[in-house]
Amino acid sequence: MINKKKLNKRQYAYQVIRSRIIDGQYVPGQRIVIDQIAKEVNSSHIPVREAIHQLESEQLIEYKPNIGAVVKGINNQVYIETLEVLAVLEGYATALSAAHIDQSGIDELVRINDQMEQCLKNYELDKIGIYNREFHFSIYDYCPNQFLIANIQEMWQRLDVVRNTGFTFFPKRTPHSIEEHNQIISYFQNGADFSTIENYTRNHKLNTLEAFKQTNEA
Known about the structure:
2 domains, elongated, Four Helix Bundle (Hemerythrin (Met), subunit A), Arc Repressor Mutant, subunit A, mainly alpha, two-stranded antiparallel ribbon
């Protein structure tokens, strides 16, 4: 739930619109009605327009002639290109984090990955993506380059619009992903070198990309 007491009107409008895009209440192509949002957040049109401009810069909204602001869709090619970039960024971020992660951080990764495996056994498919995200961002908590992490987070958020349609869930990929997480944990535990961790994590992401391609070619 959004805590509007701690947000100004622009921030509140931003959080309301963004959360509805991410959780699928607003679907690609849907028009954002400024007057309606302004009434909901009890503000003038200006903070809502500012919020929409921010979401436009984050690639979640686009302007269409004679229509106005609409939720931006994402096609297969954009999804593929985004994952390709994420593979590079996340490989580097994970390798950077390795020098800073401590035993408690490693223990947390083990716990999260065990939870992910349990969800697979119980066929709790809706939770697997949540634990997968938690696994990777628990690693990034130890990354000293916050600009890098901010860019990774922004790209994940952009892909959330697609993920929440169930479009990118690959059951056959999940067991392999869990095994690869265990290997990343092992690299942390054994002090593997930077390039080993970077290359392995990059390929971990690219494996997901290949699963996506195979699913959409079927």
